[in-house]
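ARCHIVE CARD
Drawer: 12
Card no.: 0347
Subject: one protein chain, sequence and derived structure
Cross-reference: see card 0346
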Amino acid sequence: MNYNRVILGGRLTRDIEVKATSGGTTVGNLGLAVNRKWRSKSGEAKEETCFVDCEAWGKTADTMAQYLHKGDPVLIEGMLRLDQWEDTDGKKRSKLKVTIERFSFVGGGTKQGAKSEPVADEESPF
């Protein structure tokens, strides 16, 4: 059983940026804004937004880029992945992101004939 599983619902912070790897596989990069609302002990309404970087591969990336745009709501399922590198100053850097395996359209219907169900994809390279 794979315990590295995350499910998030939110809105796209930008249009999906799609590129092809040197091997011809499509990869889409996107940002997701996930809101949390609650009331403080004094009854004051509070809200906090978490911004999450995500990537999708292959058919999932192509479908998301075709039908989803900045501001659209989406439900994603995937796994957490930690990227690590050294910057130009030699400092170690890292970034946590979600590799999307499935997604669902959310909201008032579908766009341009898109199906409102999860899209399974071939294995990502990770």
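Annotation on reverse: The two ends are 16 Å apart (CA to CA). The chain has one domain: 6-105.
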